[in-house]
Structures are given as C-alpha cells and as structure tokens.
Model the fold of this input.
Amino acid sequence: MKSTELSGVYKQKGKLFTQNPANCKGLKIYNERLVSYKGREFRSWNPYRSKLAAAILNGLTSINFSPKEKILYLGAATGTTVSHLSDITTDGVVYAVENSPLAVKKLLEICKKRGNIVPILTDANHPERYLSLVPQVDFIYQDISQRNQADIFIDNSKQFLKQKGKGILMIKAKSIDVALSPKKIYDAVTDKIKKQEINVTNLIDLSPFEKDHAAVVIAP
Ligand SMILES: C[S@@+](CC[C@H](N)C(=O)[O-])C[C@H]1O[C@@H](n2cnc3c(N)ncnc32)[C@H](O)[C@@H]1O
Done:
C-alpha cells in the first residue's frame, strides 16, 4: 500500500484506497474490498461507484486534502463517497446534505460509527436552511444531477466557502441538456462559475468510469 500525492489517499496495484478508522475495522459501507496492511485496514475506493475516485484516477492533483478539512458535501446520497472523505478528514467534518429521506436513513447508519459526518436532510437549493448548522468550509463537493447544478454550487460557495477555499462540481451533462454535446455543457458551466470570480483550475473528464460526466475543479 503506497501513499499518493493526495494525503489520505492510497494506492495498491493501480487501485485507490482510504484507511478505515480503527473503530470501524471489518465494516464495509458499499461492499467494498477490505485490505489489511501493516496493522491498518484499508477500504477500496471504487471509481465506478464514486466520481471523486474517478477524478483522482483521471489525474486530480490541483487540490489536496488535509486531515482537518471542513467539507460541505451536496448530494450525499447513501454515503459512498462521503464515507471515503470521512476516512480522509480524520480530524475534520463532512457536512452531508441530501434531500432524499430514504438515502439519509442509510447515511445515519454510517454516522453511528463515524463521528465526523453531520447528515443534513434538506434541499441544497436553499443554503439559508442550513446556515445555522454549517460553518465556513475549506472544500465544497457537489454531485447533484439537476438542471441547475451550477447555480446550486455558486449559491453554496457564496454562502459557505472560505476565501481561498476549494471545490469540485461534478457535472452530469445529460441532466442539463440532452441535445447539447457534453463539451458545450462543460464549457457553459465553467464559464458561468468563472463569472462569479470563482477560480476554476481545470476540468477532468470522468470517462471511462462515468460517461458524459466531468469534474470542475476549483482551487485558489
Ligand atoms: C448522483 S447521486 C450522489 C452520489 C454520491 N455523491 C456518492 O458519490 O456517493 C445524487 C444525489 O443528489 C441528491 N439530490 C438531488 N437534488 C438534490 C437537492 N436539491 N438537494 C440535496 N440533494 C439532492 C439525490 O437525492 C441523490 O442522492
């Protein structure tokens, strides 16, 4: 098991891993593989199940993670990617916003053992609703397949992202417009974000793991 250039992210035989917390030994979140190495346990991070893993395998290097990171996660679903960020930000917090009660019910199961996830059942279109729960954060991660996904990211960044903060917006082209080419959509979203003086560093295509998806990377 080798460290990568991203702190808290490991690699073995071309596959990504994060370290399972000591109190979660033997526990899987989404039937991922567990690997023991030098007394520590690692969880495989599947790029077909997590777009963040896909972005890392496709060359995400312009942002790094710290173990004290405060993360706002929009579109947490049942916690697949949230759980890996929870492994990485051992002394930080993941504020996990999700609007499906069923998904949040599953997320709550994960939170029983992981004290650094704050699940928030609400609509990410309304940052004012969770203003009292979420502080200024270092990193905003969004994976919401809605037509207005860029606006959701911009509104939340204005409200919660620290100066010199970073972010990743996962774009699903087909949720925005089925008629336009993904490239045109990626360009339009990137331009829209740049107009808000948010610093987009690069765009990472997520194929072959996710078709017609890209990660917009924001860094100071
Ligand atoms: C593609 S899934 C996210 C998968 C997750 N990020 C992962 O990697 O494990 C998108 C999620 O966004 C949620 N969602 C959609 N619209 C939302 C909104 N307006 N506010 C909060 N969550 C929303 C959906 O219920 C769904 O669970």
Notes: Residues 93 and 143 are 18 Å apart (CA to CA). The first strand starts at residue 2 and ends at 3. DSSP finds six helices and twelve strands in the chain. The helical segments are 51-57, 80-88, 101-111, 149-160, 173-176, 182-195.
